[in-house]
Amino acid sequence: MAGVGTSAGGEFLAGCRDEAPLLLGVAPFGMIYGIAALSAGVPAWLAQLASAVVFAGAAQLVIVQMLAAGAGALPIALTSGLLNLRHVLYSASMAEYVRHLPRRWRLLLAYLLTDEAYAVAVLRYQRRDHRAPPAPAPDLRHWYFFGAGFTLWAGWQLSTAAGLLFGATIPAEWELDFAVPLTFIALLTLLLRERAGQAAALVAGLGALAFAALPYKLGLVAAILLGLLAGVWTVRRLERAR
């Protein structure tokens, strides 16, 4: 991982390097989305555009699955919105690190703030917090964040394109679906290193068990909301304690 006071280019390349291993799980995920989009009747150009504009793998996959099932626009919008509420926790966690940046940087990094990019970038910020530099040095960690996010973005575009181009030729016995849960399990192990992630995971897990009997999978929605609230509350409590 890049050290304190390295160049912007060094930080960027370090972010690319540290994000690259996660592409092993992202690539099959993107291919699954491309295949599912075509199966749902989504034009290839629109499916690729969604990967560039929406850039939210789990939400994109849910959207095309609901389209294939004939769901209406309102249920699709509500479901994808709830699924992406976890980014509220990511934003709350990263806000203190990027609030000094110009708006153009904050907008760019907000666009790149995905599960995988957050899991790598937040560890970079936390590592510097625990090692005071011997002399004042410019804070270039946002370049690391940019490198991690850009690597993930590029990998997602390429894997989506691969699914759209070659999805029909991929043997069914490959069962690429396994990559989706494995990717999120890997991310969970990274995010559980910080207290906010631990609190969110604990409360969401308990909530999922407590509300499992609710119809229409509303228990899962309630668990997500409770987990997010617990994570945000923990972040704010830690900020006040500093």
Account of the 3D structure:
The protein is mostly helical. Helix content is 74%, strand content 0%. α2 (23-39) packs across α9 and α6 packs parallel to α8. The longest helix is centred in the middle third of the chain and has 26 residues, at 141-166.
Question: How are the SSEs placed, and which strands pair?
Answer:
Layout: H1 8-19, H2 23-39, H3 44-53, H4 57-68, H5 73-83, H6 86-98, H7 103-111, H8 115-129, H9 141-166, H10 179-191, H11 195-210, H12 218-241
Helix pairs in contact: 1-9, 2-4, 2-9, 2-10, 3-9, 4-5, 6-8, 6-12, 8-9, 8-10, 11-12
**Could you say which structural class the secondary elements and strand pairing correspond to?**
mainly alpha
Q: Quote the distance from N terminus to C terminus.
A: 26 Å
Major pleated sheet = none
Compute the number of helices. 12
Poorly predicted runs: 129-133
**Would you tell me the overall average pLDDT?**
79
Helix content: over 70%
Backbone CA Rg = 19 Å
Number of strands: 0
β-strand amount: under 5%
What is the ordering of alpha helices and beta strands? HHHHHHHHHHHH
Overall form: globular
